[in-house]
Amino acid sequence: MIFMYLDDELVLGRSRGKTEGALRLTWHLASDLGFLINTKKSHPVPLQVPTFLGASLDLRRGLARPSEDRLLNLRQCLSLFLPTVVARPKPGSGFEAHITQGCIFRPPRPSVLITTNASGYGWGATLHPQQVAGVWGPEHQSSHINVLEMLAVANALKHFQSDVRGQAVLVRCDNATVLAYINHQGGTRSGHLCALTWDLTLWCIHHGIALSAVHIPGEENVTADALSRGWIATTEWSLLPQVAQSIFRLIDRPHVDLFASRMNNQLPIYCTRGPDPNAWQTDALSVRWDSLLAYAFPPISLVSRVLTKIEQEDCGILLIALFWPRQPWFPWLVRLLVHRPVILPRRADLLYQPSSGISHQAPGDLHLTCWVLSRDPSAQQAFRDELQQLQPSPAEPQPERCTIADYAFSLNGVDGNPFIPPILHWPANEGPIRAHEVRGVSTSWACFKGVPLGDIVKAACWKNPNTFFECYLKDVLQADGKAGREVLKAGSRASQKH
After folding, report:
1. Quick one: 173 and 246 in the same domain?
2. What are the pLDDT digits (tens) for 246-289?
3. Which of 147, 229, 264, 484 has a Cα at 20 to 30 A from 288?
4. How far apart, in Å, do the first and last CA atoms of the chain sit?
5. pLDDT digit string, tens, across residues 327-386
6. More confident residue, 357 or 242
7. H helices within 392-498, ranges in order?
8. For residue 215, what are the β-bridge partners?
């Protein structure tokens, strides 16, 4: 492989021998064609840290740094503008460390995606499935929109700090100027914007974040835009009433809706966050739940507090929460189960904002589930005993709106309890299984047989479990033809042999 820039060439090879052969061929060809080769600047012996176009290329680590000559020229240039003590720093100083730390050849593939937006009113951001929004203070009311957009990015990263630390983060924004400043780590058109970019870059370096940005068309940036304008309250997502009533018919009708408002209460008796003359109580977490059978759809940030409350009081809770095994509260949630979870339907209008009528952009990606929880140990044990007796049946009809499923609790860090069996089945999307969905079927069966989630994700070359969950939602039991039944039969025969 040859990299050329005007009359400079860099020859690369996969081994020393191949590089030497390619170099000889290139040298002889250039000479035969009449080119004069500068032997003083050339390096006929292969190097793993060559210097090319003023950069020292560390091929072993994939880093490019300024060469020693380039550093010397930079110091001489700085000495024209800065005091000698700054322009000629001691070795190992902060200046040297920043200049020589290098730039990687290939930026890492993003592992976290954040979408941001700003308006004159406030800012908003999403890190699926989380959302955050804020309102500008008086000090920012007259700021340029470019400054507000950059502040929105900074605020989003700092809010999601625990999720982005040590990650490669890709920011999606509809402001081209902010994209350029982030990707170039500064700019020359606006001193204020450049200073904000430097502050953000240093913050990212301190937290081990590789930051990059990409453009998203304004018409596609719906959720972040609505958040920035105050059209969406991040704590006011409401479940479609028909779905809530379907859950109540499947399980039981609760006494009270614990996290509601006068616009989205699913039951006549409800609790609110603020004063409401029609509410039963204010602040559900501050009242007693003893003897209650309650419905709860709290913000994600309150799930841990809800679980703590359940463990402290004798109550039954129908909790609407994400199927999110990576959350620290997930094993805790599973331990409190007293009924098979209910998978909520994947429909576009599943979640909406009652005040504005805005629907969630991708409710199906949240994998919302109704978890029936109690601290009663006898009820928990009865549920586990019931799971041991269940077996998948290809002919078993599935509910059209909500689906009862048996999850692989043992795959998700629940104390290795041997009495909690793996998934029996996970019916989901309607329609036949297509040819390219075979991997989803096979991994579903692997999970059914108790293969650890990490092994499944690794074997399928998926970066994280989210891909598995999306591919996993295949209706194996109701597949057209014999495919689904044969998969189950084959697995059963294999299990009997072993």
Report:
1. no
2. 888 888 899 999 988 877 888 999 998 877 778 898 888 888 99
3. 264
4. 52
5. 888 888 888 999 888 888 877 778 777 766 666 766 666 778 899 999 999 998 888 877
6. 242
7. 438-448, 453-459, 465-472, 483-497
8. 173
Residue type, position 214, single letter: V
Cα angle vertex 322, ends 317, 328, to 5°?
A: 90
DSSP string for residues in 208-255: T-EEEEEE--GGG-HHHHHHHTT---TT--EE-HHHHHHHHHHS---S
HEC string for 299-318? CHHHHHHHHHHHHHCCCEEE
pLDDT (mean) for 91-111:
72
Among 360, 390, 420, residue at a domain's last position: 390
Tell me whether residue 438 is in a domain. no
**Is pLDDT larger for residue 118 or for residue 490?**
118
Q: Are 61 and 151 contained in the same domain?
A: no
Give the strand pairing for 238-239 and 351-352.
antiparallel
CA–CA dist 17, 21 (Å, integer): 6
| Range(s) of the domain holding residue 299 | 238-390
Q: Position of tokens 């020393």?
A: 16
Q: Is 481 left (phi over 0), alpha (psi -120 to 50) or beta?
A: left
pLDDT: is 269 or 10 the higher one?
269
One domain for residues 247 and 311: yes
Locate all alpha helices (DSSP H) within 252-339, ordered by sequence: 303-312, 330-335
Tokens of 133: 């929004």
- Res. 415: pLDDT tops 50: no
Once rounded to an integer, what is the mean pLDDT over residues 436-450? Answer: 58
Q: Do 410 and 416 form a contact (C-beta atoms < 8 A)? A: yes
Three-class SS state of 63: strand
The reply to whether 323 and 350 lie within a common domain is: yes
pLDDT tier, 34 (very low <50, low <70, confident <90, very high otherwise) = confident
Q: What is the pLDDT of residue 117?
A: 92
Count: domains in the chain: 3
User: Which residue is associated with the tokens 């928990």?
Assistant: 380
What is d(CA 476, CA 440) in angstroms, rounded to the nearest whole number?
Answer: 9
